[in-house]
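Late entry, written up from scratch paper. The run itself happened at the end of the previous shift, but nothing got recorded in the book at the time, so transcribing now.
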Amino acid sequence: MSINKHLNIVDYTLQSLLRRKLKNMGIILVFTFVIFICGSILFLSYSFKREAQLILKNAPELLVPRMIAGRHDLVPLGMARDIAKIPGVAGVEPRYWGYYYDGFVGANYTVIAVSDSAAKESRMVKGRLPGSGDALTAAIGAGIARARSVDLDSDMFLMSSQGQLMTFNVTGIFESASELLTTDLIVISQTDFRRLFNMPAGMATDLAVSVSNETEAPVIARKVREYFPGTRPILRSEILRTYDAVFGWRSGLVLTLFAGALLAFIILAWDKATGLSAEERREIGILKALGWETSDVLEMKFWEGIVISLTSFLLGVIFAYLHVFYFGASLLGPALKGWSVIYPHFRLLPFIDPYQIATLMALTVIPYIAATVIPSWKASITDPDEVVRG
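Output as recorded:
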């Protein structure tokens, strides 16, 4: 008997929602849009953070750049030999990298000098990385290939810092799956790198330090700073925290831009909380006069809030998931990716944080249900005759 009673209440709730379908559809549309925007931002920012963690998983534990007057400066190779003598240091590798502005496209490229170990571990759809001794050869990101309209075995022209035109033969193009990391990347030999940027011999951009025990990395960083006061050692964990902060800041900025939608939802919830319409109050009064208990009215309104809020939440989360992971977050991607001209084409791996989903539900579904039930309780404890007469 009790089960039939609850089923009848649920059935009446659904019929009641259908009688006011236009109003309820409007609420669901607004609610779904709010969940869609918030869910898209959460999915996108969390996926970017996870991608950064995977990318930096095999990065060196410590980077040692040199600073002069607060600006990045070249590092003498002799410093690498001295750092290698510090107990706990497994190896030190000079890195050669920089930025190249392409006036033809209006974009900045990241240029890296290849090492022999990197050439052996290359992962590309077609072609190869240039060897450390190869002259005037380059591997480029797919974004650069599209922007410069070049393909494998094509020629690409770059102007050196001394005004000399350098013609590079494209020996490889990075696979599309790695575009998040390589879309604006050019990999050339060390000799070509020095010529392109006119870098003096015996100098490097910075040093990559690998340690025997990762827990000792902060201690080694402190020793490097003591021995070489002009350096600024950067831990891998600090880079990860920076990525978290950057994507967190950008997602907060995008949420601010959609504050109007959030404000509309708040107004909607407040309107529900401040009272019922005359029609809804009259309906509750009639139900009470027909013998409904206060608990029955509250159960009906509870199911009404559940149906509207969960339908909106599920639709919003599903649309956000499809938007981010199947359509490349075309609406919000440019605000969070950070590339100014050459945008990577990639499909993020579906990384979902259950805590974020639970938080989003707690901040939207639960308040809406409460805003539906509380006014109904006030009306249900009032004398039915008074409620019906208004």
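The chain is about 55% helix and 15% strand.
(Scratch paper discarded after transcription.)
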